[in-house]
Amino acid sequence: MGITLEPLQNGGRVLEYLDNTPNVGMFRALDLLNREVLVITSPEVIREVLQTNAYDFRKVANVQNYMKVLLGDGLVTVDGQEHKQQRKALNPAFSAKHVQQLYPLFWSKTREMISYVQKDLESTEGQQGTVVDVTSWVNRAALDIIGIAALGIDFNTLANPTNELSRAYQVIFEPNSTSTVIFLLSTLVTTWAVKLLPLKKAREIRAGSAYVKRYIKRIMTRRVQDGNDEKAVRKDILSVASQYGKFSTDDLVNQARTLLVAGHETTATGVQWALYTLTRPENLHVQQRLRDEIHKQLPRLDSDQEVSAQILAKNLPYLDAVCKECLRINGPSPFSKRTAVRDTVLNGIAIRKGTSFVIPNWAINKSKRLWGESAREFDPERWLHGDDALNGGADALAFQTFSTGVRGCIGKGFALAEFKIMLAALVGSFDITRATDEREVKIEWGIIARIYDGLKVNLKPVRGW
Ligand code: HEM
């Protein structure tokens, strides 16, 4: 018997079924428009679909086509052999060794963000604490970081909030009901929804994407010419990738568009969710304990001392646990979708070519079957005492925030480091509370699960750090 879930990307709804429906590692459900899909519930089936036989399960064509309008043919949107080649070329730039070299960048941009926020607070209400929309700050810091890390270019959107690039991204990704309709129409019916719809929002998305493409094309064209002239030795992600694979200027533009989006929207949304979690009244003690560890172990933001990967890995176990728990309980990427490209067998069940799958990352991360009775509670302790190889859960694949396998997040190490540093600087610098009384927030369920209308918090500077 199928179950109708409206819509299937709503991780909260899927969770109800995940734990309570008897199943064989997957169950049938009816997605919007009554399309049948199999929702995967067990690590064993995830392992087969995303790891062991990953190339037998492609990403869904309509979602890919929608993403291509925004990103072009980069790592996120290509498939098969082309994906293998691109991934092979990009992998070295995401190695632990390369990411370690980026810690000073994460730290300095985050310090810059905090100093602007502090100035903003001083100019409004002195030291008393002021309501701030963190969404914009965190988004711009993450955009500046990925600009330097991926292209070697500082977009300076932190210093310049009206920067056209950051405004274009804001328009493209701003959660509202029309963008949800465009996304659903595009991914469920036809990509032409975003290409042709005469809606104001669809026009804005098209104009924003075209602007980003032109802007990056200008940069990459200049850069290819400079690189040829100067034979410059660059260490940014695209330069490293160019040593391992062949990329035309257009390929580099698409890869840059891909990395800029994949590398800033997700992390920034993750930080917002973390602040949402840490400002819930029952979690304020976690915020304080975290702040104590940060003050003890990390240099003050106004000192010139840098933060290394070693310090973060060894001296701040609570920060590590809080970050992972925040990313578990509210991961930015609520689901992944796949289609079987051939007839196959999963867990003893015959699967026909063309069968659609949903891997409900958000729900798997909170499943009681995988995380025990406390699955839905925010409890960083589970990461301090558990077997680290198991990611704090019953199986290493119970933590699906970054997905897994050949199409899992290539930027996982990058994201975790950047996320930790941003959260540490924010919690170390400010006592953070909710600006509104609402306990729950409205969620926009798309490829990224966003807090509708952003997160407003009250920031009160903490003295002595
Ligand atoms: C908290 C932050 C992040 C989260 C939660 C996240 C999550 C994910 C997930 C779940 C996927 C797989 C999507 C799917 O299978 O449908 C993915 C893929 C990807 N991510 Fe991330 N990501 C984050 C940050 C980053 C960063 C910082 C970068 C780059 C610097 C990045 C680059 C990518 C790319 C390029 C892919 C496509 C990989 C492929 O298809 O081979 N991500 N990410």
From TrEMBL:
<dbReference type="GO" id="GO:0020037">
    <property type="term" value="F:heme binding"/>
</dbReference>
<keyword id="KW-0349">Heme</keyword>
<feature type="binding site" description="axial binding residue">
    <location>
        <position position="409"/>
    </location>
    <ligand>
        <name>heme</name>
    </ligand>
</feature>
<dbReference type="Pfam" id="PF00067">
    <property type="entry name" value="p450"/>
</dbReference>
<dbReference type="InterPro" id="IPR036396">
    <property type="entry name" value="Cyt_P450_sf"/>
</dbReference>
<keyword id="KW-0408">Iron</keyword>
<dbReference type="GO" id="GO:0004497">
    <property type="term" value="F:monooxygenase activity"/>
</dbReference>
<keyword id="KW-0503">Monooxygenase</keyword>
<dbReference type="InterPro" id="IPR050121">
    <property type="entry name" value="Cytochrome_P450_monoxygenase"/>
</dbReference>
<dbReference type="GO" id="GO:0005506">
    <property type="term" value="F:iron ion binding"/>
</dbReference>
<dbReference type="GO" id="GO:0016705">
    <property type="term" value="F:oxidoreductase activity, acting on paired donors, with incorporation or reduction of molecular oxygen"/>
</dbReference>
<keyword id="KW-0479">Metal-binding</keyword>
<dbReference type="InterPro" id="IPR017972">
    <property type="entry name" value="Cyt_P450_CS"/>
</dbReference>
<dbReference type="InterPro" id="IPR001128">
    <property type="entry name" value="Cyt_P450"/>
</dbReference>
<protein>
    <submittedName>
        <fullName>Cytochrome P450</fullName>
    </submittedName>
</protein>
<comment type="similarity">
    <text>Belongs to the cytochrome P450 family.</text>
</comment>
<keyword id="KW-0560">Oxidoreductase</keyword>
<dbReference type="InterPro" id="IPR002401">
    <property type="entry name" value="Cyt_P450_E_grp-I"/>
</dbReference>
